[in-house]
Predict the 3D structure of the following.
Amino acid sequence: MHVVCPHTLDEALATLAQGRHRVLAGGTDLMVSVNHGSVLTDNVVALDRVTELRGVSLHPDYVRLGGAATWTLLAGDPVRTLVPALAQAARTVGSPQIRNAGTIGGNIATASPAGDSLGVLVALEATIDLAAHDRQRTVALQDFCVGPKTTILEPDELIVAVNVPIISGWQGYTKVGVRNAMVIATVGVALVVDETQRRVGIGLTSVGPTPLRCPEAENLAQTALWSPQGEAITPNSDEIAAVAARAAAESRPIDDHRSSAEYRRHSVGVLVARQLRRAIASRHGGHE
């Protein structure tokens, strides 16, 4: 195996432009596949020396995360304060060793339906900056994943950064699994309440071929949380149940060795209702 270790983004992109290279960021997905024999590769571009890809920068209305930013970095400040749902997702990923190595760009590029960051990012309407040697583009995370472990990323492109909006309001991520961490999610739910835009985002993982949004449930939640005049109102239990039921109906789970579709769909409803109650309680400075 031939490994190229560029020190700059330009060097990395120039290498990818030559063709027939696989990208190695944290290696927590690629090396598992290589060791199992399911992926064969002779040429690798390792990104661990490209400092341009590893940091977090703050902007007035969004946080820019380098494509090679690790889960450990994302679990702490400033992400923990500004994008707490993503920090919550980061803390559930693998062991400390995996979090020190694994990267958000790798998680996105792998495009596993169970990727812990993906539900949060679609709920927050995050975008991704992609770059090749001769071009750049920005796409919505929602449009990036087109199928199970399938994306629109071209062979000569890198995920340079992830742009995550900073919202004013409650946000959270939770998942169902046999353990709280070091486990693939059976169901993952992110819920975002943007008080400024009067918008609710609901992102689901492990219940469809790609991370899912729940537009009908989001619309129900928005109607329940704000009056037509834009004033904050408190939903009753029936309205919360209606939002949860609609989100469950919009999920697209399957039966597999980890869970049944019926259990996954039920879990979506339970987690959406739980998170919505937490969001409502936070408006009043309390807890569920």
Notes: The mean pLDDT is 91. The domain at 171-283 is CATH 3.30.390.50 (Enolase-like; domain 1). The radius of gyration is 19 Å.
